[in-house]
Amino acid sequence: MTRPITAGVDGTEESLAALDWAAREAVRRGLTLRVVQAWTFQPYEAIDAADPGTQARWVRDALDEAVRGVTARHAGLDVVTDVVSGDTVETLLDAAAEAELLVLGSRGHGPVVGFLLGSVGQQVIVGANRPVVLVRAGDQPSAEAAGREIVVGQQGEPEDSAETLRFAFEIAARRGATVRAVRAWSLPPVFAYSPGSMQLLDEAGGLEPFEKKALGAALQPMRELFPDVPVIEHLEIGSAGQVLLSVAGRAQLMVVGRRARRTGVGARIGSVAHGVLHHAPCPVAVIPHTE
């Protein structure tokens, strides 16, 4: 089954930037662009829109106008649109399940944190079984120019980040970009040392060589699958979120994995993904980890 690139829109400047990003990616991949807008009737007594039919027409007209702009910029792009009456989270999760990837707008960090980092967006990221890309207002095609990297976070064992790395390398291969693979490490607390771990560290020659070897092992399968993609191995001591953000300025896209979990106070996507989504100036792709 051929999946589309799907953009979720709501008329905001951020979602229109996401729509443009999704259109460019659909052109690169030769895929259909699906544009989805969730809509729920809101009774407004003060204006002449008290009936669902009137509001539905407004939503459809605004969506059609946004799509006309995209098709004008990308001649030949196959576009389908859906206005869905229903819950926003459920609509976006259904759309993600049928998509190659879901693209949404995000305000990121500021006086008001964008809805995609609030309840709606967090639930979508937690529940989506496909990659979700977050795009900020003002994102421009020029940000995808040569010289700007695909930055991807790698952690744990090779299998822990295989899907995240593969996504980054596939994007880089299509764009002729370099992959900067980032692995952050820190000194473990004294109580974390064990005879087994000490033996592994001794065999590797110390902590930093051990981490470098782990990064190389995770990248080796991707180097074999994508031999033409240039790779920079970035190993740095510090927290993963801080190290990733330190190189975000050179990125055209940042790719992070997530292991979603639910707690008594709601859904959580992990501190690294959460921090990058708030502060990275570039689009961010969040890749679900298959358990």
From TrEMBL:
Residues 1-136, 150-288 form the UspA domain. It comes from the Bacteria. InterPro entries: Rossmann-like_a/b/a_fold (IPR014729), Universal_stress_UspA (IPR006015), UspA (IPR006016). Belongs to the universal stress protein A family. This is Universal stress protein.
